[in-house]
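Q: Given only this backbone (132 positions), what sequence would you predict?
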């Protein structure tokens, strides 16, 4: 197992994030998912986060990412949800018709550490999302 490091620490911190569309509206297709993924990647450097795996179903996304001890996860997630919501609604106006109160993402999110599971198992799970 290869560990990550910075000036003062050695670590290996993987997280599995699940974001759900408000009221589970079925609005995520490959185009919107790829757009949301690009927005995710554009924010990662500022927060010392690295995208590992990404996939979606029609009403939620699964993200596997690595972080550092100084990553501010809740700030990152809130910044991402806010920016991506605003931009998706702006660039995909047809999505607005399916939303309630202009909110794209549900207020809550699921963030899991993956320390107890081999990372390949989590990656395989995320890749299988949306496959019937």
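A: Predicted residues:
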């Amino acid at each position: 197992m290869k560990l990550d490091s910075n000036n003062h620490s050695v670590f290996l911190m993987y997280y599995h994030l699940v974001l759900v569309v408000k009221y589970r509206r079925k609005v995520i297709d490959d185009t919107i998912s790829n757009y949301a993924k690009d927005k995710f990647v554009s924010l990662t450097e500022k927060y010392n986060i690295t995208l590992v795996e990404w996939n979606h179903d029609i009403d939620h996304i699964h993200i596997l990412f690595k972080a550092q001890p100084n990553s501010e996860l809740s700030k990152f997630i809130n910044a991402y949800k806010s920016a991506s919501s605003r931009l998706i609604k702006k660039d995909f106006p047809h999505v607005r018709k399916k939303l309630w109160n202009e909110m794209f993402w549900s207020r809550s999110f699921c963030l899991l550490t993956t320390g107890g599971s081999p990372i390949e198992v989590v990656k395989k799970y995320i890749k299988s999302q949306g496959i019937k």
